[in-house]
Amino acid sequence: MRTPRPLARLAGLAALASATALVAATTTVAPASAAPTWAPADEAVLTPGVQAYTEGGQCTTNFVFTDAADNVYLGYAAHCAGLGAATDTDGCLAGSQPLGTAVDFVRGGSLIGAGDRVGGGTLAYSSWLTMQERGETDANTCAFNDFALVLVDEADDDSVNPSIPFFGGPTGIDTDGVGAGEQVYSYGNSSLRFGIEQLSPKYGVSLGTTGDGWSHPVYTLTPGVPGDSGSAFLNADGQALGTLSTLAIAPLPASNGVGDLASELAYAQQFSGIEGLELALGTEPFSPGL
After folding, report:
1. Is the pTM of this model over 0.70?
2. How large is the average pLDDT for residues 204-230?
3. Which of 1, 43, 182, 283 is surrounded by the fewest CB atoms within 10 Å?
């Protein structure tokens, strides 16, 4: 298993700087790393929306991420690796599988069939584990920071494309939230839908922004159900808005809670220890389709 590139040590920096300056004066230095080469979108089997199974529990992946060491990650919800009940939503208290837990990527998984395993990875970051390790006390962060990263097995890197199926994008990150009535788009893949991919694209509207910017309640047709957890949400410009976290019973029945990706990613960038963590943009243009 590959691990993120370690932080450079302070010792010897002065000598290294002198040597680097000497080399630069006589030769051209190649970049430390190259951008990933993605599989063509119509051939890739590891994309946002692929099913992810963790210790038997099924969720849906959201976006693709990379780091400074050219590792590739698929995101999903932290509760996808949870140990408790579906009502355990406080990430500062809920139990989780440890980092390093194996995750299987599957297409076509349903209640009547296991589907086809198309790749694998390991849990590399969990907002729940990180918040508990840090002793996080902010109530909104504990309630809505529901984000995890699965490090894709190196052998499967060539099977990845970051484009959202059906819609394309993401074109960037939504950094200012969405107002009530604004259009949103999602792609879920719950096994409860028996592998019927025509039910995966979802159109909806935002009900605003809550939780000090951490959450966006939404209504979609159809609503997100168990197994859709972790799914990507895009705004009307194709920017990455958030990740599906909860199904609400009250006060807005059948609505979904979407964690704010800008906030979740910023937290991971600050506290995960993964250097250079960033969202990968889609290779396909964003097109809402309606």
Report:
1. yes
2. 94
3. 43
